[in-house]
Amino acid sequence: MTTSLPSGLRERKKAKTRAAIRDHAMRLFEEQGYAATTVDQIVEAADVSQSTFFRYFPTKEDVVVTDDFDPLIVAAMRAQVPDVGPMEAIRRAIHTVFEEISEQDWDREQRRQRMFLAVPELRARAMQQYLDTIDMLAAVVAERAGLPSDDFSARVLAGAVVGAILAAMPHGFNVTDRGDFRYLDDALDLLNAGLPVGPIRSHPA
User: Are 148 and 170 contained in the same domain?
Assistant: First the structure.
């Protein structure tokens, strides 16, 4: 008779393996350069097989490009009470996720974002990443409003949020300092106010 690991333990083991692969990959990228680092070197450093690597990251690019916080933001949006509007739900979800992550995970995220900004071939993936983010936000906005997942208005709202964040944050979606979130708050305030042009009362850093 065989038994399987409890779901919670199994998920923790998967998360630990994924984090270990990414940690070793980032160390190698920083030490010898992104282009010079191979998948073979990463799997050897992480002591995993190639099949395990590709189970977590379909390509070497995905080690850096994949945002592990997206599913957490979706879950935090779904947890908001129904009478919270879509942009406020997005704001609260982002703050909830990034205010609760550990310093270790914050450091990992900073390393990932620095690498993303530094490597041109990774920045070329940015447009697809933005489209994926719009899809993610639109689906949850539509779900909360009881609309079809492909609802046009939900997608336009999600696109407006993504565009506002890109325009307002110093480095687009790459948050280099926790204080950068004040720009996100300011951008969403402007959207909620109908995008008036003129001075705004900024959120404190």
Answer: yes
